[in-house]
Amino acid sequence: MNEVLNPFIIKLANASDVIKILPLLEQLGHPQDTDNFKKRYLEFVAAPGYGVAIAQQEDTIIGMIAWSKALLLVSNAVRIRVEGLVVDQKHRGQRVGDQLMNFFENFSKQFSPCIIEVTSGARHVKDGADKFYYKLGYKNAGQMEKLYLRKYL
Questions:
Q1: What is the pTM of this model?
Q2: Taking burial as the number of CB atoms within 10 A of a residue's CB, which of 19, 20, 58, 118 is the most buried?
Q3: For the residues 3-15, what does the mean pLDDT come to?
Q4: Are 106 and 71 in contact (CB under 8 A)?
Protein backbone atom coordinates (compact mmCIF):
# COMPACT_ATOMS: atom_id res chain seq x y z
CA MET A 1 0.00 0.00 0.00
CA ASN A 2 1.26 3.48 -0.90
CA GLU A 3 1.88 5.83 1.97
CA VAL A 4 -0.12 9.06 2.02
CA LEU A 5 2.47 11.79 1.54
CA ASN A 6 0.19 14.83 1.77
CA PRO A 7 -3.28 15.04 3.28
CA PHE A 8 -6.22 15.56 0.96
CA ILE A 9 -9.72 16.95 1.39
CA ILE A 10 -13.03 15.72 0.03
CA LYS A 11 -15.48 18.36 -1.13
CA LEU A 12 -18.23 18.97 -3.64
CA ALA A 13 -16.81 19.90 -7.02
CA ASN A 14 -17.55 23.21 -8.67
CA ALA A 15 -17.37 24.51 -12.23
CA SER A 16 -13.74 25.60 -11.83
CA ASP A 17 -12.78 21.94 -11.19
CA VAL A 18 -14.03 20.66 -14.55
CA ILE A 19 -10.71 20.93 -16.41
CA LYS A 20 -8.87 19.15 -13.58
CA ILE A 21 -11.40 16.27 -13.64
CA LEU A 22 -10.75 15.44 -17.32
CA PRO A 23 -7.49 13.47 -16.79
CA LEU A 24 -9.26 11.28 -14.22
CA LEU A 25 -12.05 10.47 -16.67
CA GLU A 26 -9.44 9.51 -19.23
CA GLN A 27 -7.86 7.11 -16.71
CA LEU A 28 -11.34 5.67 -16.13
CA GLY A 29 -11.55 4.96 -19.86
CA HIS A 30 -13.88 7.84 -20.74
CA PRO A 31 -11.87 10.58 -22.49
CA GLN A 32 -13.94 13.75 -22.93
CA ASP A 33 -14.05 16.75 -25.23
CA THR A 34 -13.51 19.75 -22.93
CA ASP A 35 -16.32 21.99 -24.18
CA ASN A 36 -18.93 19.21 -24.33
CA PHE A 37 -17.93 17.96 -20.89
CA LYS A 38 -18.17 21.44 -19.34
CA LYS A 39 -21.73 21.79 -20.62
CA ARG A 40 -22.71 18.27 -19.54
CA TYR A 41 -21.15 18.76 -16.08
CA LEU A 42 -23.18 21.93 -15.47
CA GLU A 43 -26.41 20.16 -16.55
CA PHE A 44 -25.53 17.12 -14.43
CA VAL A 45 -24.91 18.94 -11.15
CA ALA A 46 -27.94 21.19 -11.69
CA ALA A 47 -30.27 18.17 -11.68
CA PRO A 48 -31.87 17.44 -8.28
CA GLY A 49 -30.05 14.62 -6.50
CA TYR A 50 -27.07 14.62 -8.84
CA GLY A 51 -23.59 15.56 -7.73
CA VAL A 52 -19.83 15.30 -8.02
CA ALA A 53 -17.30 15.31 -5.20
CA ILE A 54 -13.54 15.47 -5.51
CA ALA A 55 -10.51 14.51 -3.47
CA GLN A 56 -8.10 17.41 -3.62
CA GLN A 57 -4.49 17.53 -2.53
CA GLU A 58 -3.22 21.10 -2.63
CA ASP A 59 -4.28 22.26 -6.14
CA THR A 60 -4.47 18.78 -7.64
CA ILE A 61 -7.62 16.69 -7.96
CA ILE A 62 -6.59 13.13 -7.13
CA GLY A 63 -10.01 11.47 -7.13
CA MET A 64 -13.63 11.97 -8.08
CA ILE A 65 -17.05 10.41 -7.47
CA ALA A 66 -20.26 11.28 -9.31
CA TRP A 67 -23.79 10.15 -8.45
CA SER A 68 -27.41 10.36 -9.52
CA LYS A 69 -30.68 9.87 -7.61
CA ALA A 70 -33.88 8.17 -8.73
CA LEU A 71 -37.18 7.32 -7.11
CA LEU A 72 -38.29 3.69 -7.12
CA LEU A 73 -41.79 2.60 -8.05
CA VAL A 74 -41.77 -0.62 -6.02
CA SER A 75 -40.12 0.68 -2.86
CA ASN A 76 -40.07 3.65 -0.53
CA ALA A 77 -36.29 3.65 -0.85
CA VAL A 78 -34.47 6.07 -3.12
CA ARG A 79 -31.85 4.63 -5.46
CA ILE A 80 -28.58 6.54 -5.55
CA ARG A 81 -26.23 5.32 -8.24
CA VAL A 82 -22.50 5.86 -8.40
CA GLU A 83 -22.04 7.14 -11.94
CA GLY A 84 -18.28 7.17 -11.72
CA LEU A 85 -15.50 6.73 -9.18
CA VAL A 86 -11.86 7.14 -10.06
CA VAL A 87 -8.64 7.77 -8.17
CA ASP A 88 -5.56 9.01 -9.97
CA GLN A 89 -3.20 6.11 -10.65
CA LYS A 90 -0.41 7.75 -8.64
CA HIS A 91 -2.64 7.94 -5.56
CA ARG A 92 -4.23 4.50 -5.51
CA GLY A 93 -3.67 2.49 -2.36
CA GLN A 94 -3.86 5.64 -0.18
CA ARG A 95 -7.54 5.19 0.84
CA VAL A 96 -8.68 8.03 -1.43
CA GLY A 97 -11.41 5.82 -2.91
CA ASP A 98 -12.52 4.74 0.58
CA GLN A 99 -12.80 8.38 1.66
CA LEU A 100 -14.73 9.37 -1.47
CA MET A 101 -17.18 6.51 -0.88
CA ASN A 102 -17.48 7.48 2.80
CA PHE A 103 -18.27 11.10 1.83
CA PHE A 104 -20.83 9.88 -0.72
CA GLU A 105 -22.48 7.42 1.71
CA ASN A 106 -22.76 10.10 4.40
CA PHE A 107 -24.26 12.49 1.83
CA SER A 108 -26.71 9.78 0.73
CA LYS A 109 -28.05 9.21 4.24
CA GLN A 110 -30.20 12.34 3.86
CA PHE A 111 -32.34 10.34 1.40
CA SER A 112 -32.76 7.37 3.74
CA PRO A 113 -34.06 4.86 3.18
CA CYS A 114 -31.85 4.55 0.15
CA ILE A 115 -30.21 1.87 -1.91
CA ILE A 116 -26.76 2.66 -3.25
CA GLU A 117 -26.05 1.03 -6.56
CA VAL A 118 -22.61 0.67 -8.12
CA THR A 119 -21.50 -1.00 -11.31
CA SER A 120 -17.98 -1.55 -12.44
CA GLY A 121 -16.91 -2.31 -15.97
CA ALA A 122 -15.49 -5.78 -16.51
CA ARG A 123 -12.29 -4.13 -17.74
CA HIS A 124 -11.73 -2.79 -14.20
CA VAL A 125 -11.77 -6.22 -12.52
CA LYS A 126 -8.06 -6.55 -13.25
CA ASP A 127 -7.55 -3.36 -11.21
CA GLY A 128 -9.47 -4.82 -8.25
CA ALA A 129 -12.58 -2.64 -8.57
CA ASP A 130 -14.91 -5.49 -7.61
CA LYS A 131 -12.82 -6.33 -4.53
CA PHE A 132 -12.83 -2.64 -3.55
CA TYR A 133 -16.64 -2.55 -3.50
CA TYR A 134 -16.96 -5.94 -1.76
CA LYS A 135 -14.61 -4.67 0.96
CA LEU A 136 -16.97 -1.73 1.51
CA GLY A 137 -19.95 -4.06 1.98
CA TYR A 138 -21.44 -3.99 -1.52
CA LYS A 139 -22.70 -7.27 -2.93
CA ASN A 140 -24.57 -8.75 -5.83
CA ALA A 141 -26.39 -11.62 -4.21
CA GLY A 142 -29.73 -12.66 -2.78
CA GLN A 143 -32.76 -10.47 -3.32
CA MET A 144 -30.60 -7.62 -4.54
CA GLU A 145 -28.79 -9.67 -7.22
CA LYS A 146 -28.86 -7.95 -10.60
CA LEU A 147 -28.08 -8.73 -14.19
CA TYR A 148 -26.94 -5.53 -15.85
CA LEU A 149 -27.97 -5.14 -19.48
CA ARG A 150 -27.98 -2.09 -21.70
CA LYS A 151 -28.92 -0.99 -25.18
CA TYR A 152 -27.90 2.25 -26.90
CA LEU A 153 -30.53 3.95 -29.03
A1: 0.86
A2: 118
A3: 82
A4: no
